[in-house]
Amino acid sequence: MSIPKSSLTSIPTCYATVSIGTPTTPLPSKLAAISTAGFQGIELGFPDLLSFASTYHKREINPQDYDTLCEAGKEVEALCREHGLKIVMLQPFSNFEGWEEGSEEREDAFRRAKGWIRIMQAVGTDMLQ
Fold this sequence. Notes:
Blueprint: E1 14-16, H1 27-36, E2 41-45, H2 46-57, H3 66-82, E3 86-91, H4 104-123
Parallel strand pairs: 1-2, 2-3
Helix pairs in contact: 2-3, 3-4
């Protein structure tokens, strides 16, 4: 089965926020650079969301404070819209797989995944990497 080349035009070209700048580069600066470079979307890295949330709320944010991360995520989505960017996916998956069934680590991984799904809804994406 052949896929028509025209169907590919609906897929935005994306850039991962964790792949630009340094860990201390503010997310709004990264978004401006990604937009200026001609990309249409981003892969929102969890470290960038966490850093933005801490700056936005003017306090250190716990990585499992999903209510606060969702609030900050809505702000990130608004910033993306201002730059003509779409949040194509959220990238929080690290140390997720490989835990033994029934282990506390596995239970924690699934608790985090449920929180990440909430964040996905807040930022307007349906893809998790």
